[in-house]
Amino acid sequence: MIGLGLPAGELTVLCIGAHPDDIEIGCGGTLLALGAARPISAHCVVLTSTAERRAEAEEAAASFLPGSTIDVLDLPDGRLPAHWSTVKNQLESVATSVTPHVIFAPRRDDAHQDHRLVAELATTVWRDSLVLHYEIPKWDGDFGQVTHYVPVPADLARRKVEQLDKSYPSQVVRDWWDEETFLGLMRLRGVECRNRYAEGFVVDKTTISF
Questions:
Q1: How far apart are CA 4 and CA 105, in angstroms?
Q2: How far apart are CA 174 and CA 182, in angstroms?
Q3: What is the average pLDDT score of the chain?
């Protein structure tokens, strides 16, 4: 595998999720590894919530990204395309104060309509940032190939699962929410990049400097 690096020094990171838990499921291990490796300035945006889930998202952001800031909207789950203008305006508002080196957002080909909208708008609002599109396991069976991998140390992979359970108690009753799901996916992506655990991402385009 050929490794590609990020700019030296403190990184500004933006994490965007359609729903509470999207970010942590999709790239929680990467965020933990990144925070352990170097200083980061992080901001999170979550577009749908209820009062209960807002509190969970805020706890999760503090747990996975200590010192981060977060905006949580109360748009309805499953209906983001009907609120296109509100989502666009929110992201453009964030863009006035956050110029990230790296953005984490869902995949463009995700089967969930809310995820797809967030993925599409992230790359139009921030045209000069590296966008890493994360994947989210669900019953739709929409997994595809990834283009980039971030190895996650075993202790941080397990910490990701522990913090997911702690931060999102409302979700642990779901039949797909368990250690086997989260560790299993990280193990599969790890096999693909010759590591024990990893998270996979899709990058639409980037430049290589020599």
A1: 19
A2: 13
A3: 96
Left, alpha or beta for 141 (phi > 0: left; psi -120 to 50: alpha)? Answer: left
- Coil/strand/helix, residue 203: coil
CB 46 within 8 A of CB 73: yes
Residue range 152-184, pLDDT digits in tens: 999 999 999 999 999 999 999 999 999 999 999
**pTM for this one?**
0.96
d(CA 203, CA 146): 8
Q: At which residue do the structure tokens 């020599």 appear?
A: 210
CA distances from 87 to 36, 45, 48, 125 (A): 31, 10, 10, 11
Q: Is the dihedral angle over the CA atoms 185, 91, 35, 127 positive or is it negative?
A: positive
Taking only the tens place, the pLDDT of each residue in 82-104 is 999 999 999 999 999 999 999 99
Beta bridge partners of 72: 46
Integer Cα distance of 43 and 151 in angstroms? 22
Report how far apart, in Å, the C-alpha atoms of 114 and of each of 46, 65, 91, 106 are.
11, 23, 14, 9
- pLDDT value of residue 7: 82
More confident residue, 48 or 5: 48
